# Entry
Amino acid sequence: MSRNLIGLLTLLLFLACAKKEPAPAPTASQPTPSATTTTSAPAPTTSATPAPVPASAASGIASAEGEKPGTRVDVQELKRGSGGTVTLKMVFVNDSEHAMGFGYNYADPDHQIRDHGSIGAVQLIDPVGKKKYFVARDSEGKCVCSTQIPDVAPHSHLSLWAKFPAPPDDVQKVSIVIPHFQPLDDVTISH
# Structure
C-alpha cells in the first residue's frame, strides 16, 4: 500500500513539474503529436482507503481550516435542487500525521445515537434572515447525508455530502458551520 502511495505521489509531482516546463518544439526527428492523442489516467482504485491529496491542493468554492493542524474542508458545491432542497458537497482533507475520525465528532447532539459516523451536525445559516437550516432527516430521524464514514487516513481526503431544506429563493448566500472547522461565510447557493 505504501509503495502505491509513494508511486502516486511521485507521479503527481512529476506531472506538476512537467506542466511548468515548456514543451520543446518538434524537430524532423520528433513526430508531431496528433490532436487526438490522449494520455491515459491511472485507473481508479476500488479500495476503501481515500486517495492522497497534496497539502497545497485547496479547491472548491470555499475552504476552512480545522481545529487540528493539517485538516481542512473544501466546499465543492452548494446547489439548489428539486423538491425544495439544497445539496452540500465537500471534501474533508487530512494532511496531518494522524487519522481523522468521525464517530460522534460531527453528530447532531439531538440525534447523536443515529448520527454516529455521519455529518448530521453540519448547518447552513442565513445571517440576514437569522435562521439555521439543519441537515434534512428521513421519517426515521436519520440524516440525509453521508453516513458510516470511515476514518480519513493521514495525507488523504474523503468526499462527503448533505441535504438541507432550501432557504427562500431570495437567500443567495449562507454561512456553513461544520463542527471542528472555522465557519465558511458568504457561500453562494447555485441553481
